[in-house]
Design a protein that fits this description.
Elements lengths: L13 E5 L10 E6 L6 E6 L4 E6 L5 E4 L8 E3 L6 E6 L50 E4 L4 E4 L2 E7 L2 E10 L2 E8 L9 E6 L7 E5 L4 E3 L11 E12 L2 E12 L3 E6 L39 E6 L2 E10 L6 E8 L7 E4 L2 E6 L8 E8 L7 E6 L5 E7 L4 E8 L6 E9 L2 E9 L1
Antiparallel strand pairs: 1-4, 2-21, 3-4, 3-16, 5-6, 5-14, 7-10, 8-9, 9-11, 10-11, 11-12, 12-13, 14-15, 16-17, 18-19, 19-20, 20-21, 22-23, 23-24, 24-27, 25-26, 25-28, 28-29
Length: 431
């Protein structure tokens, strides 16, 4: 490829830092996160450690998912100015593909942002000439050999008559692929590469056409980041239509779920957890929905569930492409929800405590491992008399169960929660 397409030297540079805590009167930490001018960097943020890892955003081209032995996922780097086309769904046509055919290739392919799978990529959306079961988009899984065999030739258009044709040959415990670079009038020699899944604790392996090699160390360990500030394409809707548009914003780790609440007062010491159904594992649940054309929405709040912890987060500043600043505040609200580990199988919490005037209480129930016996919640007055009893459904995951204690007089009570052969008692104040 022509030299002007790429920078002369592109190396994987990661800068990790613990964010200096600036805590406000409501207990929220301010994070002055920046992607840099023109959104040049990709930034990972870890909620529990309050730390960031910042990297150059455009020093790779292809990301190969490697977290699962046989799960697909090949993504293009949206931080680059590149358009992906499916040039052919017939393997034998790799050699005959030519940029002069561009008008026949149809609509460009994009990494999907409306998905719960971080690994879903543009190349997985391809259409093969022979459709059928075990479809990986770019290829087909062979149940006999346990190998995905490629069938689709792609052309990557970098602009200014710069093209790369790309074909994923196979995938088993890693990816084998081939590519050739357009020199302005013809294709250069075809290069074949194999990238094994490897043993590093990351979701993807990254490849650069600039160096012709794997780019190492482009992610923190999976447990060390929750949200990623990056560039991504979305179907942007405007009056009269829509178009694929490159945005800057947040994509989330598969380890968290997010509930967006609007309108809600941002600056408040208290928090009310949204309904279970409000939480989403969509990778763009935060996305760019916190910012209008300029500035930020001042009535948008995000609740984030990470394991047995819950966070409340909202944005306070948007610097735009000039500096890439995306300042936000967040707080671990787990303790305010009264969440306690009852056993290795579940976590529980009760809120609000004290109750509000309607005397309704919510039990948070986060089941990590099912038990044969269903749990239950009991309420006792200070004489030891049981004044309320309810069963907790035996289901996996996180949910809420509302308790109506309107029949109780104001005063102090004890709430006993039982699950997995363990019990936990909490004090409850009924107003």
């Amino acid at each position: 490829m022509k030299t002007k397409l790429f920078l002369a030297s592109l190396f994987a540079i990661s800068v990790q830092q613990t964010v200096l805590a600036q805590t406000d009167a409501n207990g929220y930490t301010t994070v002055n996160m920046t992607m840099g001018g023109a959104y040049a960097n990709r930034v990972f943020f870890d909620l529990s450690a309050n730390s960031t890892v910042s990297q150059v955003g455009d020093n790779w081209d292809i990301a190969f998912y490697r977290n699962n032995a046989m799960d697909k996922g090949v993504r293009i780097n949206d931080a680059k100015t590149v358009t992906v086309y499916q040039a052919s769904g017939i393997p034998s046509e790799f050699d005959s593909v030519n940029p002069s055919q561009l008008s026949t290739w149809g609509a460009p392919l994009y990494n999907p942002d409306q998905t719960t799978r971080l690994q879903d990529g543009a190349f997985d959306t391809a259409t093969k000439a022979t459709a059928g079961p075990w479809n990986y988009g770019w290829g087909t899984y062979n149940v006999g050999t346990h190998v995905v065999n490629g069938e689709v030739t792609f052309v990557l258009d970098y602009g200014s008559n710069n093209y790369i044709k790309f074909f994923i040959t196979s995938f088993a415990s890693g990816y084998t692929f081939k590519y050739a670079i357009w020199n302005g009038t013809s294709w250069g020699a075809t290069q074949t590469k194999t990238i094994a899944n490897g043993t590093d604790d990351a979701y993807f392996n990254y490849f650069s056409f600039t160096t012709g090699e794997k780019v190492p160390n482009l992610e923190p360990a999976k447990a060390n980041w929750d949200i990623m500030f990056t560039r991504y394409y979305t179907d942007y809707v405007y009056p009269g239509g829509s178009m694929m548009y490159k945005m800057s914003g947040v994509l989330q780790s598969p380890t968290i779920s997010v509930a967006k609440i609007q309108p809600e007062t941002q600056e408040t010491p208290s928090a009310t957890l949204p309904a279970t159904t409000a939480f989403s594992s969509n990778i763009s649940a935060i996305g760019h929905s916190w910012k209008p054309t300029s500035g930020v929405y001042t009535d948008v709040v995000y609740y984030i569930k990470q394991g047995s912890d819950y966070y409340r987060l909202y944005f306070i500043s948007n610097g735009g492409t000039n500096n890439g600043n995306m300042y936000f505040k967040y707080k671990n609200i787990t303790s305010t929800l009264g969440i306690t580990e009852v056993s290795k199988k579940a976590s529980f919490g009760i809120y609000p405590n004290p109750t509000t005037a309607d005397k309704k209480v919510t039990v948070l129930f986060d089941v990590k491992e099912k038990d044969n016996n269903k749990g239950n919640v009991e309420v006792y007055d200070l004489t030891g008399k049981r004044v309320y009893n309810a069963e907790l459904s035996n289901q996996a995951g996180f949910y809420k169960q509302d308790l109506n204690l309107s029949h109780l007089a104001s005063g102090n009570y004890l709430v006993k929660i039982t699950y997995g052969g363990k019990t936990e008692t909490k004090k409850l104040i009924v107003k």
